[in-house]
Write a structure and sequence with these properties.
mainly alpha, two-stranded antiparallel sheet, about 325 residues, 13 helices
Length: about 325
């Protein structure tokens, strides 16, 4: 375990420096996110900071795979890189929903054996083929909801950091080896380094190039946690994002709206529209996530009571947002 602390600090510093360099490059190239009626910003802001985050994580994955002789880390780095490249083209223009979903499905299919080799996400409750299919659907949904939720300064960094730390802590208590703890820590560290630049008022945005690969990575780690038997932990840690995105988009779909298109109906967006600052919302979400991490640790021994309290916590958080 002795190498985890210096490695994590190294990732944080690398993300911090790389994001600053990417910001300068984006400004020179005038790659900007222009305000529109659905935006949460009023001036053009560089978009594509996820390049630094993903590059930092990719290097960390490759070095970890080399040091531990773990092939899955190479495969994971390749999938992350492929999604990042495709998402960068989406940031620059517009790819069809079909192309994006096909790429995500391919990345999920390539890495699915790693999840299946760990165990059954549905704990034997479903036939094997149905379990694998539903696991893939959930994974793709998580990739997209993480992208959908990237709408105000600092929020995605807070969520990625919280879930990453939660995965590392629960993995530590569950007896995971250091190599399996590091992915969560590297994501959290890279998110913190990025947050320095993305905190309100943001100097740059993550972009699809960052949010899509992060959703893929976190989805992989959460599903691996569920497959190892800790399904409640995998539900609790990202429960705020799951609830906000699923409820909001479910309501839009029920009204016949195009839920995949940009909008301002998420709970956190409604809080921002009512006058709450981006930083204030992020601090409240951070506090809620801290409670979810604590409940995730408890869920290792008492899954149902911990999940029940997590639902109450997220319900209170969503209520605060709509009443803000």
């Amino acid at each position: 375990m002795f190498w985890l602390a210096p490695a994590t600090v190294s990732v944080l510093l690398a993300s911090l420096v790389a994001t600053g360099l990417v910001l300068r490059w984006l400004r020179r190239r005038a790659i900007l996110d222009q305000p529109n009626p659905r935006s949460s910003h009023q001036v053009p802001v560089p978009r594509g900071g996820g390049i630094a985050v993903v590059a930092t994580i990719m290097v960390a994955l490759l070095l970890t795979g080399w040091a531990a002789d773990r092939v899955e880390f190479y495969v994971l780095a390749g999938a992350v890189t492929g999604l990042a490249v495709l998402s960068w083209f989406d940031d620059l223009g517009h790819l069809s929903e079909l192309v994006r979903l096909a790429a995500q499905a391919l990345a999920v299919a390539v890495f699915m054996p790693w999840i299946v080799s760990t165990g059954d996400v549905f704990q034997g409750a479903l036939p094997f083929w149905l379990s694998v299919a539903l696991t893939g659907v959930i994974w793709i949904w998580f990739i997209n909801l993480f992208n959908f939720m990237d709408g105000i300064d600092g929020l995605s960094a807070v969520e990625a950091g919280s879930v990453g730390v939660g995965l590392a802590l629960t993995g530590l208590l569950a007896g995971a080896v250091a190599t399996d703890l590091f992915p969560g820590l590297m994501i959290a560290a890279a998110a913190i380094g990025f947050a320095v630049w993305n905190w309100h008022p943001a100097k740059l945005f993550l972009g699809d190039v960052g949010s899509v690969p992060l959703g893929f990575l976190l989805g992989a780690l959460l599903l691996k946690m569920a497959a190892s038997g800790h399904w409640a932990v995998a539900l609790i840690l990202p429960l705020y994002y799951l609830a906000d995105a699923t409820i909001t988009l479910g309501r839009r779909a029920s009204r016949g709206g195009r839920f995949w298109q940009p909008h301002r109906e998420h709970f956190y967006q409604r809080a921002a529209q009512s006058g709450r600052s981006h930083a204030g919302i992020c601090f409240v979400v951070l506090g809620g996530n801290a409670i979810l991490v604590a409940l995730g640790l408890w869920a290792l021994t008492a899954p149902l009571p911990a999940l029940a309290l997590a639902i109450v916590t997220v319900a209170a958080l969503l209520f605060w947002m709509v009443r803000a």
